[in-house]
Amino acid sequence: RSGSWLAGVVAWSLIWKASCSLTGMSSEHSPLGGQPEPRARESSHFLHALVTGAVLALALASSATAAPPVAGIFVPGKSLGGVSLGMTKHDVLQTWGRRHGDCRNCSQTTWYFNYEKFQPQGAGVVFRRGRVVQVFTLWKPQGWRTSGALLLGARVQQVLKAYDPLDKRVCSGYYALLKPGRKVVSVFYIDGTELWGFGLTRPEVSPCL
What we know:
By secondary structure, the protein is an alpha+beta fold. It has helices at 2-19, 43-60, 89-96, 156-163; strands spanning 73-75, 79-80, 101-102, 109-114, 122-128, 131-138, 145-146, 167-170, 175-179, 185-191, 194-201. The strands form two sheets. Strands 3-4-5-6-11-10-9-8 form an eight-stranded antiparallel beta sheet, sandwiched between helices. The protein has a three-stranded mixed beta sheet with strand order 2-1-7, with no helix packed on it. The longest helix is centred in the first third of the chain and has 18 residues, at 2-19. The protein is globular, with a radius of gyration of 16 Å.
């Protein structure tokens, strides 16, 4: 099912490319957006949540190629691909490069960095008052891992073994395992039984994207 679904994503991307301005983002939600649901859904629903949020927007960004690390390192409680909470916009641009897409309708300033045109893999950053309050991966970018060598795509049991105790937050079509800290919450995004993403967020910011 995932192959035919991805083909649909590409088709929609082309349609939107022809009909929308390429100077910004047309998404109304952040990647993985939605309201909490009573349980996590299967993989195809998780992917749908991604696409209905920022993935289509990524395809429409005027600067469709950006430069987060090819295989970024997630250091829980500290950084994701070299970006830390509290960084300024200038700091992020110095770390990941200047080419990114801006979400027009997000409640907070949100930048999306994807590797290639019409390909959703990459990372995103949310700012408040000019500083990073949330950073996250998009669509399981290949090679990203924790500082302890836990790769995206690992089984949830491996996450729990490495980082338990973890809190659980059910989001729309997926769930997040949280390692709370006083100023930084480390997030492991889970699709079914598989690790799909990493993130850092302030305690007052929802981990659901």
